[in-house]
Amino acid sequence: MKYGSIPLMLAIIISAMAAFVTWESQLSPAASAKGAVPAATPKTKTIRELTFIEGEFDGKRVSTTDAEWKKLLTTDEFYVMRKDGTEAAYTGELTDNKKAGTYHCAACGLALFKSDAKYDSQTGWPSFFQPIFRRNVAEKEDRSLAEVRTEVECARCGAHIGHVFDDGPAPTGLRYCMNSISLRFKPAK
After folding, report:
1. Contact 150, 142 (CB under 8 A)
2. Cα–Cα distance measured from residue 115 to residue 103, given in angstroms and rounded to the nearest whole number
3. Residue 113: is its pLDDT beyond 60?
4. Which whole number is the average pLDDT over 149-155?
5. Listing from the earlier edge strand, what are the strands of the sheet with 160-165?
6. What is the spatial distance between Cα 122 and Cα 131, in angstroms, rounded to a whole number?
7. Each residue of 61-77: pLDDT tens digit?
8. Cβ distance 84 to 160 under 8 Å?
9. Known catalytic residue at 177
10. Which candidate, 185, 187, 189, 188, places its Cα nearest to that of 106?
11. DSSP code of 94?
12. 74 burial type by CB count under 10 A (0-12 exposed, 13-18 middle, 19+ buried)
């Protein structure tokens, strides 16, 4: 019986070695050389490349399914731009942006607003008194809350950008209150 457990011990050692080899093969090459732990899995999607489209909308709409948008957008972007969600006030990275440039649709890249039309509405969202071109945004009635509002969408891809209100500054008297996550900023050269 003394030697009867040797095959069992060998099986355990071989299993342990196989597990170690499998674990080591999952390390990145640099980490493997140093004996470090496996690299962490990214928790968010990488922001995809976006082609900025300058000028007035040419009328050619983007036709993309929700399944395709889910692959292209982050979870938060999809919620706001495809499901008409709203980001929390004062959380967007473009709310306090004061740089000169153009704000584009974060889904399709169409130019929507210029920085010279941006102002601080003290609402917690980027606000503009007019779009870069009237044709670049579409407006539709929104009855999702107790009040009737006017929703603003990208004219090219239909992404929900925000809402427009009639309490803005001169010269238009309008406040385009936009979700920061629905916009990508391109600095002026």
Report:
1. yes
2. 7
3. yes
4. 95
5. 118-119, 127-128, 175-178, 160-165, 149-154, 137-142
6. 19
7. 998 999 999 999 999 99
8. yes
9. yes
10. 185
11. T
12. middle
Tokens of 116: 């010279």
Give the rounded distance of the alpha carbon of 32 from its chain centre: 34
Asked whether 74 and 103 are in contact (CB, 8 A), the reply is no
- Please check the confidence at residue 35 and state whether its pLDDT lies above 80: no
Using CA atoms, how far apart are residues 184 and 189, in angstroms rounded to an integer?
16
* Domains with residue ranges and CATH for the chain: 1-40 (no CATH), 66-187 (2.170.150.20)
Task: Read off the pLDDT of each residue in 169-184 and give the average, rounded to a whole number.
Answer: 96
Residue 41 pLDDT greater than 50, yes or no: no
Q: Of 105, 154, 157, 177, which residue is the catalytic one?
A: 177
Residue type for position 48: R
Q: What are the Cα distances from residue 109, in Å, to 52, 54, 59, 102? A: 4, 8, 14, 11
Strands in 123-171 per DSSP E: 127-128, 137-142, 149-154, 160-165
